[in-house]
Design goal:
alpha/beta
Length: 163
């Protein structure tokens, strides 16, 4: 069966985050979408025990800047266990969409490898605004929730492998 709701997950399979510190970097471009995604991520982190003082939230102008935001967060806050990158790029009439999406996906991977910490890709790459709304709390759930769950699972995996 194909999964269609990004917010569907088994809470019992998500590690408790009470000992974790998580950064969340959010693009301001398409703010209606990114604010909803960020709220989903923040609520999910809190629901799984991440303490308010261990959640670091920053905003960057657009999705292209997510990688720089994540890099700066990890460089300047050694307590962070992971960073969730939240943005939304909607297809337009030019190839700008392709360049931004490619740069962000490669950049997030590079930041994760550089800092040896999970950096989570919660970037919507949609054809239109309706598809973005559907994935920011609409009929397909909230990709921010998925990003938070992924961060918690990856932190746990990293800590287990390091021990």
């Amino acid at each position: 069966m194909k999964k269609t709701n990004l917010s569907d997950y088994n809470p019992a399979e998500v590690p408790a985050g009470n000992e974790y510190a998580v950064g969340v970097v959010v693009a301001e471009w398409n703010r209606e979408i990114t604010d909803a995604l960020a709220q989903g991520a923040l609520d999910t982190l809190r629901e799984h025990g991440v303490k308010e003082e261990n959640i670091r939230l920053v905003h960057v102008p657009g999705s292209f800047e997510l990688t720089t935001g994540a890099d700066l967060m990890l460089k300047n806050d050694k307590e962070l266990d992971a960073v969730i990158c939240i943005g939304c790029v909607i297809q337009g009439e030019t190839r700008h969409f392709d360049f931004i999406c490619e740069a962000v996906s490669q950049g997030i991977t590079n930041v994760a490898l550089k800092h040896e910490k999970p950096v989570i890709f919660s970037l919507l790459t949609t054809n239109n605004m309706q598809q973005a709304l559907d994935r920011a709390g609409g009929r397909h759930g909230n990709k921010g929730v998925e990003g938070a769950v992924t961060a918690l699972k990856m932190i746990k995996m990293q800590k287990e492998l390091e021990n």
